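Appendix B, record 7
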Amino acid sequence: MPVKVVLHVSPHPDDEAIAPGMTLRALAARGWSAVNLLLSAGRPGDEERRLAEAVDASRRGGYRLERAVDALAGGEAVCAEAVADAIRRERPALVVSPQARDGHPSHEVVGRAVGAALQVAATPAAWWTWGLWASLERPTLYVPHGPDDLQRALDALAAYRGENERNDYRRLVEGLAAANAVLGSERVFGFGSAAASTKPYAELFTEAIHRDGNWYAGRSRVLDVDDPLRGQPVGDPLELP
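Structure tokens (predicted):
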């Protein structure tokens, strides 16, 4: 049976270890081939350090690092081309990226670029988007995690020593994961809903599903990380950004 590929698209080194870090690490631990496509090396002057940290983080996280580090500087069209090339090369079953309205300009460029690449991709894939600088407008996927999942994600994030010294994102990851476990239950399944899981942490995504040549919004569900694409319920037709 072919190994399934999850392709994560990172605007900067460390994005893969923050909002989606527990879920990417969990997929890699379950036999998925996890690929992180890095579209920039960060701020001028920090490139060498941040690329070295990204290599260390990929080793800790169990995923393969692919670099197109000049793409983000080239704008949305260049990013879309880099993502399309990666999709053709890797043939992922799942693409993960920031949302197109994430509040951070670079995240938004990348979110739009991934949508554009997927519109013309020859390989059908599901698309999960995460929010960091802005909450997801319509989260549909609740991914529960336990303390061990959090610790593994924090270990990968710890590779970004320079960024954590500047602003300790490890505190953010733990706090966001705890908040998602509470807020996510009602944001995904409706206000007044009971807790979606007894696990103390969660990550949230908006899911788009490619089926029969069309894209659909995923319906609300709790992810089974052991079989994450099985039984995906589809909702309304969706036009990608």
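Remarks on this record: The beta strands are 5-10, 33-38, 64-67, 94-98, 126-130, 141-145, 201-211, 214-218, 221-222, 234-237. The chain has eight helices and ten strands.
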